[in-house]
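Readers of this paper often ask what the protein records in our data store actually look like. The remainder of this section carries one protein's record, kept here as part of the documentation.

:::
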Amino acid sequence: MSKPVFIITIDTEGDNLWKNNDQILTENVRYLPRFQQLCEKYGFKPTWLTNYEMAVDPAYIEFASDVISRGQGEIGMHLHAWNNPPLHDLTGDDWRHKPYLIEYPDAILRDKVRNITGLLEDTFQVKMRSHRAGRWAFNGLYAQTLIELGYQVDCSVTPRVDWRNAPGSPQGNGGSNYKNFPVHAYFIDENDISRVGHSSLLEVPMTIQYKHSPLVNLLMQGVDRLRGKQRSPSVNWLRPKRGNLEQMKSVVEKTLQQGADYVEFMLHSSEFMPGGSPTFRDKAEIDRLYDDLEQLFAWLGERTQGVTLAEYYQGFVKGTTLNSGHQ
């Protein structure tokens, strides 16, 4: 590819799952066309990583089917274990604790992945190629299951981030620790997903940069140890927050300067809806989000070309991306 690529990933799920513990609504479907139109304006193709509640919503099915029919995006899979069939009561209140899929028994993990994969493929009549784990929790068994089902791309890894302090099951050990994972795309070793291997599953890690220099990070971690705390170094994502346009541009610039052949953006579908997330709480904040997105996409349009996750995989395999293994 002549330019680095811009990969847009959207965790496509119910409304404000940070807060809603007793029901899952899907009103945010009504707000997705605006973002799709913005992507198309700049020649970008979002990958809509789709959760169970969205996969059974008639309005979402209509929206996603249109995207597929026009070749303007991709539908992938996203899985939140607590409401994805077959249901299995792990904690006594899974909707409140939101346990990680990797905390469930192995057979249940496999059944849940198979179920949502079959549902999506039957609904949209396309093969599922791309995936992101719910709450970023991934392991070898999960990877092996995706491989068995013919997935080509995973994008669950968040390099430089340790999720072990984010609880799932009260009896569990928290989420996945990605602090020392590769920052570039790599075919994973399914027995050790932190290592480059020879499986058929391509890992495309999120675009994340340290907020501070290595020296500052080292000093801050030393202070934390003296205080008896253990925290990951602060990071910046290619992910909108309120008023972080320049920060996102800096993440892109730093990533491309380090030799990357892609940058990967993410957001949740509910963040396009007023009140659908803790981040963008009303119409004014949504409008400011779109102001930032308009500027970011115009800026990226001069520097990158848009592809879906599956298209990136195809280019990587053919050697048309700069897949030289930059760290």
